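Deviations from the work plan: none for this task. Representative record:
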Amino acid sequence: MSFEVPERQICGFIGPNGAGKTTLFSVISGAFKPTAGSIRLRGKDITGKHPARLVKMGIARTHQVVRPFRVLTVVENVRLAVHFGRKKVAGAQSAQEQAMEVLSQVGLQNKADLLASALSLGDQKRLEVARALATGADLLLLDEICGGLNSTETRSMLDLIQQIRDKGATIMYVEHDMKAVMSVCDQITVLDFGQKLAEGKPHEIQNNDAVIKAYLGKPTLESGPGA
Amino acid sequence: MKPSLLRYGKLALPFLVLMAFLILPRVRDDQDLIRILFATFVWTIAGIAWNIIGGFTGQVSFGFAVFYGLGAYTAALLINAGRNPYFAFLGAAGIAMLASFLVGLPTFRLRGPYFAIATIGVTEAVRVIMSNVSFTGGASGYRITEYGPFRQNEHYYQALVILALAVAISALVAYSRFGLALRAIKQDQDAAAHLGVNPYAFKLWAHAIAAALTGVAGALHARYNIYLDPSGGPGGVFAFQTGISILLIPVIGGIGTVWGPVLGGAVVGVVEEWFTVKFPSIHLLLYGALLIVIVLLEPDGLVGLLHRLAKLFRRRREDTGGPRADKVLWGRSRLEGREL
């Protein structure tokens, strides 16, 4: 499998369960070392680098299963990312301000002083995004950040993603909600069993035979047209 | 948060207690009390140190006797070489810190309980080595010769100042970005790594700070006691039991909090120094009973208990919206994120 992610775009990654989307993210973000192949960031080889190093180089991820620091407050969660992210911050005060700024971007400013464990799942997903944003990354790996959100929440999350892109970041986005993916992505890559099945613009993917087959199965006599 | 009388009181209390201890020897010339207090201060310093790596960072070590003992021996050697005692304290901190890297470099690469297990092995190894090397007298122990009169109050003040320093370091760590990273590592080191924190490096440094402070505690012990016992028995600086006593201080007082080890140190100091004399045959039994009571009834230690009491007294004006921030460090540590 080989692909490129153009800058300043939202690139969707879809595929059936077990296709390897999250694994792909784990490899890019440095959580897993690939056994073969290479990853390049603007032409520079970053294969197998430590996640913390990659954050300093501008790559941040969210987790599909949320992983907030439960016994830290919401703003502390984000401040950690500000402190140890890509850019140096002047001091505790300015780190706090930056963290609050990111929190109001995702709409959590009123819950800043709660412990992260007190948040609802939807808010914890927001917190995931806020932390990734707060690192100052320009390549964001967002893993199912809309899972478990209702339709209004999903809408505001998608708006947020587009805002982030418009500010100049590149986004790799995994999501199961097709409507969300189709509406927000500039380009989509379809994975199946760790292989690339197809790539292209959203409408091209929607009409791709291989993709339909992977999702719905092969048409057979019993279930196919004319049966 | 509004500045309230209670909040100022909270900040002023430590200073008042410090002042009280500063003037105590002038008001009451009870040399036995001073001795017990001195020993308690030394234990508390080691407990505060342990809490930095074991409490804030969640890396449980059974091996702090190594740093305590190495600090004690380093100080002893330097004092016998005619060096200034303060220089000896610095030397003790340095050697203990070096030792902490030797333990941490291989073990912090591993996940799970390996660090904790390794610390047990290291304690035993160092004890056996120190009982066999000749330049410190091997198993027969080491004697310190310092010229000049022995003034107990001088030791007392020295320990008190270093204790105050240890509390300050602990608070500084807790409220800095370094401490924030440590607390994040304790809860989920992978998530911390994905936000730019290198867990390996932070664990190493937290361990080093803890070891240095423990080394100074050992040095205080050495200078006061004049004779160092390398055996595994009670009172032996390298004894496994010494490491356990240090570990129990934050456990009893409240693990992962700034004031927990201070309160715990008071308890362990009194138990170690006073029970041992008062009830020599059953002091370990009392110790065990105390520990069981605390672990069963209040896993967050004395700080947790105080917090519960405080809650009973003021059930008012708690604004809604779940648990708040300042309770985490000052009060309950909420151990759900614990990882051994």
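Residues 30-144+152-239 of chain B form one domain.
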